[in-house]
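Final report, closing paragraph on structural work. Over the funding period we assembled a curated collection of sequence-structure pairs, and we close with a single example.
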Amino acid sequence: MNIDIYEDSGVEKQQIVATIGPDVEGGLILSGHIDTVPFAEQPGWELDPLKLVHKEGRIYGRGSCDMKLFIAQCLYACSLSDLSKLKKPLVLVFTSDEETGCHGSARLIDSMDRLLGKIPRPRRAVIGEPTSFEIVDTHKGMGHFELVLKGKAWHSSRPDLGSNATHKISYVLEAVEKLNRSYEKEINDQMRKTFPDFPRNYLHLAQIRSGEALNMVPDKAVLGFSFRSFPFDKPLRVLEDFQEILAQKLDAGSYEILGAFSAPPMRKAEDPELLSALKACCDSSDTKSVSFATDGGNFSEMGIETYIWGPGEIKMAHRPNEYMPESDFYRGPKMIQQLIEKVLF
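Its predicted structure, as stored:
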């Protein structure tokens, strides 16, 4: 086992890469992320987020669905299997900073081979994000950025001597609406087939921060945006399209784009052997796509054919009273054990 240790904003982060089996090609990665979204200020919790509670056919707790219980299932599945029979290596990869933009797995692009040691980098992986054990073979990427609107501070009794940054938000809202309407007109058969749940681009305005006091003209307004990107698009296409429209509505010196970031989409996985094994384990004949992003995008960047397949329902991720259905919790280890034995024994 090797640990990747790094520091981010004064906080030490750790990622784990554990291996077992012969030093040959054809290994399998099982992966999950060990970080969670915040819960301390999230309203609606009726149970202790940090205490695992088994109640009425559900298992509650922050990370129960997304995706700490999958990690536990992987470890238990290893104990159920006779790993001395491995003909190909099994690799467990537990990442950090997935929730902040898949930053942990991005680090592995350059360090995975070092962490694996003598074992050749596997070309196949399963990430246990919550899909109710449905098989996902592709997903969108994600991005985010901040738009800073600039004004001139003054006392509110003389607004004519200042420049109200908050007022400029109306122009931004018009630009967002225009952009999203244009994306509605772009929907085509490829988008409908690949991502039937939401077959278009969309710019999401998530946060607005502006003004310090009622008697002050705001000199700054900060808007936070996120977006998703198709595997067949440029990662920052939505931002570029937005900037083009915004330039028609605001002077260049009156705003600034900061912190633009994108996590890559996961291209469609094509590993017939692994797909066949997954279908046999969960008695499924179909694959699907999802719009949420995972570490699978960075795994794809490493040339790893990746499927998303895990317990729990994505609708419960990031929500108060997060839970995993009891049925998924108990059937998971046996299914993962079967997967290990089908692919690696």
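The CA atoms of residues 27 and 89 lie 5 Å apart. The first strand starts at residue 2 and ends at 8. We thank the funder for supporting this effort.
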